[in-house]
Design a protein that fits this description.
Blueprint lengths: L10 E3 L9 H9 L3 E5 L5 H12 L6 E5 L8 H10 L1 H7 L14 H10 L4 E5 L5 H9 L3 E6 L2 H10 L3 E5 L5 E2 L14 H9 L6 E4 L5 H9 L4 E4 L13 H8 L6 E4 L7 E4 L2 H6 L9 H16 L21 H12 L8
Parallel strand pairs: 1-2, 1-9, 2-3, 3-4, 4-5, 5-6, 6-8, 8-9
Antiparallel strand pairs: 7-11, 10-11
Helix pairs in contact: 1-2, 9-13
Length: 347
């Protein structure tokens, strides 16, 4: 099984579903001495397989992140009311409101079969825990299993099912927070504190994520006892990222320096740059994932096509103001260099 402690640089390019994570980004992270993850979320098994093939041909270690399926809709009436509230947005962009999706497992079984068949080195899970049987199948294939968690209690639950590592997300993290329960309200524990608490409690390695935007943050997270840091927001404007143009522009010239945690776009809590969509819909949205995601997805795509950032999910962690463009390889190398006092100490 792959051991993250063998990396030249203990830096992981986070899986960012919806476009930002690309094979090129994963390859760039490896060239820097770290490792990257493909994001399986929202992709067909066929597309995921093509990305695995593309990265695999380079001969580098990498991981794949898979969304654990959520429950079917619990309150269809609440979802219908939210759909009705979205009608003005759909009308503004001239797109039809989609029908309500009662359940969607995001091809979970097929993706598990695929990563086993292709012997992917690391597989991480977000939005829940895989079954003990699934973990055993992955272990039998020599795959290291990682669970994404956002609290000490969630860490305990993950350890109990037999995962090999934990990815601990603090409150500063951009995009979706890895709470295991759909209805859970995320805590506001900073990444360094949460990582320290989890490290002191479990006997498996811990990755820490959230707000890691400069060398000082890298050093602080590693000092907490984490074996590696995971970065996402810091790579959103990199050359290799698949981040859309509206998102990039908003990150470069934000209307304000404020990020907020909202369920408005997907039904799950996620940190994003605040915009009018969040202000209008956050109080109305039910905790229903993936139903809400499917309702807003065509609206968000239409807003991107129109160049309108007020209706786009502008995922960003609290460190977004420090991001820069350029090669992801250079961004990662610079973070590591800054964490150790300058280029003369970089490997």
């Amino acid at each position: 099984m792959f051991d993250l402690r063998d990396l030249e640089l203990p830096i992981i390019a986070a899986p960012m579903a919806g476009g930002p994570s690309t094979p090129g980004l994963v390859i760039a992270a490896a060239h820097a001495g770290g490792i990257g993850f493909l994001a399986a979320g929202y992709k067909s098994p066929e597309l995921l397989e093509s990305e695995i093939t593309e990265v695999g041909e380079v001969g580098i270690p990498f991981g794949v992140n898979i969304f654990t399926p959520g429950p079917p809709i619990r309150d269809r009436g609440a979802v219908q009311r939210y759909r009705d509230a979205l009608a003005p947005v759909a009308e503004r962009y001239g797109v039809p409101l989609p029908v309500i999706v009662d359940a969607d497992d995001d091809h979970f079984g097929a993706k598990i079969d695929l990563v086993i068949e292709r012997r992917v080195g690391l597989v991480s899970f977000t939005f829940g825990l895989p079954s003990v049987d699934t973990i055993q199948r992955l272990h039998d294939a020599g795959i290291t299993v990682i669970a994404t968690v956002a609290s000490v209690d969630d860490a305990d639950r993950a350890v109990a099912v037999g995962v090999d590592l934990l990815c601990v997300q603090g409150t500063e993290a951009g995009g979706h927070r890895g709470t295991l329960d759909l209805d859970a309200v995320p805590n506001d524990t900073p990444t360094v504190d949460l990582a320290r608490d989890v490290v002191s409690r479990v006997d498996i390695p811990v990755i820490a994520a959230g707000g890691v935007g400069d060398g000082e943050a890298v050093g602080a997270v590693l000092a907490s006892g984490a074996v590696a840091v995971q970065i996402g927001t810091a790579l959103l404007d990199s050359d290799e990222a698949g981040t859309n143009g509206v998102h990039r522009t908003a990150l470069r010239c934000p209307p304000s320096a404020e990020t907020v945690v909202t369920r408005a776009f997907s039904g799950r809590p996620a940190r994003a740059l605040r915009n009018s969509f969040v202000d209008t819909h956050d109080a109305l949205v039910p905790a229903e994932y993936p139903a809400v995601h499917h309702l807003t997805s065509p609206l968000r795509k239409a807003a991107v096509a129109a160049g309108e950032r007020q209706d786009v999910n502008l995922w960003a962690g609290t460190s977004f103001a420090s991001i820069r463009g350029g090669s992801a390889t250079d961004i990662i190398a610079e973070l590591w260099s800054d964490a150790h006092g300058g280029p003369e100490s970089a490997p």
